[in-house]
Design brief:
Layout (H helix, E strand, L loop, with lengths): L11 H11 L6 E2 L16 H13 L12 H12 L7 E7 H16 L5 E5 L3 H10 L3 E5 L1 E2 L4 E2 L1 H8 L7 E5 L12 H14 L2 E6 L13 H9 L3 E6 L11 E7 L5 H15 L6 H10 L2 H33 L6 H4 L4 E3 L4 H11 L1 E2 L5 E3 L8 H10 L3
Parallel strand pairs: 1-12, 3-4, 3-7, 7-8, 8-9
Antiparallel strand pairs: 2-10, 5-6, 9-10, 11-13
Length: 392
């Protein structure tokens, strides 16, 4: 029977990682993988995470199952971090296997409620969004998002497309630090998106994978909070991989805001989804997060280190934009400084991306997405020269 399986299309980013590892050239640079790296090229364990794990080691008394939707302390702490002041009468929540698991469970929940839904996604979006939708057999439609000329948001096109959404559809939004472009909505544009969703009756599903990596922990949640406050129903899928640096612990949360009368019904459906998928969720990463957020001293140290991470990426953006300004005598790459988060899309052609890899041993995803966090002060000038020499 298993011989009837069909070969699956390899993930392009994972394939690029393999190609990078096989490259024997000295000084090669990996800007493909979506993982934060410090100036030394390491993905460090945050100070507060180590302290929390030490505390857990000393105080933990059992490895028994947690609650089916996850420990309340974790879910409550994440809801407070994301929403500020969560409306308890409207909020249901679920611990998930990473942010990807939150996306999957959110889509499953939406399909249970609206079997004929269409999911609207930004063009472009994180490729795994599309892969999951295709695997689930959910109809999807793109809405315009990235302006290839300005490297900013094509908001006029976005608004025109989203005006066509129907009640029962889902609109997939990036809460901040848009992946793969780095181009974000302004506060005014978030207001307009909220109005569009109100008029169409579509359900927002917000992917909040990078809170704290853009303009700050609270600032990065402003769009999400606005949507959650204005819309009667909202789904939010959040990841702890980046802002807590616990990639391999696979820690995420799904928040669902509904009418108060539907809150318990929603919570029950979410717990049911966990039971059908992997039963009880993993707890180690969730307990790290709840330990940090539940302790003032640990939370303050975590926020301070998260700010260091954020400012490190902003400094690299500034340096790269400045290098390109000097090399080209123009400001056409200033969008790199304006973008936020780990990623920016350069607007290079696949041929130019291939030339950069061939000639400079710099690995970039084929759509020209670069991971800013894969750079340091010494490699920024190398990338800038490679971009110019490739004719981007």
């Amino acid at each position: 029977m298993l011989g009837n399986l069909k070969p699956q299309q390899p993930d392009k980013i994972l394939a690029l990682m393999g190609e990078f590892r096989a490259d024997t050239r000295q000084g090669k640079i990996d800007l493909g993988v979506g993982v934060y790296k410090d100036a030394s090229g390491n993905t460090p364990i945050m100070r507060a995470v180590k302290a929390a794990e030490q505390r857990m080691l000393e105080t933990e008394t059992t490895k028994s199952y947690t609650a089916l939707p996850g420990e309340p302390a974790f879910r409550d702490a994440m809801a407070a971090m994301i929403l500020g002041e969560p409306p308890a009468d409207r909020l249901a929540s679920l611990a998930t296997v990473g942010g990807t698991g939150a996306i999957r469970q959110g889509l499953e929940l939406a399909r249970m409620a609206s079997p004929g839904l269409t999911v609207w996604y930004s063009d472009p979006t994180w490729p795994n969004h599309l892969s999951i939708l295709d695997f689930m057999g959910i109809p999807k439609r793109a809405y315009r998002y990235f302006d290839a000329e300005t490297r900013g948001v094509d908001f006029e096109g976005m608004a025109a497309d989203l005006a066509q959404a129907q009640p029962g559809d889902v609109v997939l939004l990036h809460g901040c630090c848009h992946n793969p472009t780095g181009a974000n909505l302004t506060a005014t544009q978030w207001e307009e998106v909220a109005g569009l969703l109100e008029r169409t009756g579509a359900l927002p599903l917000i992917d909040l994978a990078y809170q704290g990596f853009g303009d700050g922990l609270d600032q990065d949640a402003e769009g999400t909070r606005l949507i959650a406050a204005r819309l009667p129903e909202t789904l939010i899928a959040a990841s702890c991989s980046k802002n807590f640096g616990i990639y391999r612990e696979r820690t995420g949360v799904l928040l669902a805001l509904s009418y108060p009368a539907a809150r318990d019904l929603t919570q029950g459906a979410m717990a049911f989804l966990n039971r059908q998928t992997y039963s009880f969720p993993p707890d180690h990463g969730a307990r790290i997060v709840s330990t940090i957020l539940g302790d003032a001293e640990l939370a303050a140290d975590w926020k301070a280190e998260l700010e260091e991470v954020r400012n490190h990426m902003l400094a690299l953006r500034s340096q790269l934009a400045g290098e390109l300004r000097d090399l080209t005598g123009s400001n056409r790459f200033d969008f790199i400084e304006e973008h936020r988060g780990m990623f920016s899309r350069l607007g290079a052609t696949p041929e130019q991306v291939e030339a950069i890899k061939r000639d400079a041993a710099i690995y970039i995803v084929g759509d020209s997405r670069i991971n800013i966090a894969g750079l340091n002060r010494d490699t920024v000038p190398i990338l800038a020269r490679a971009i110019v020499e490739a004719g981007v």
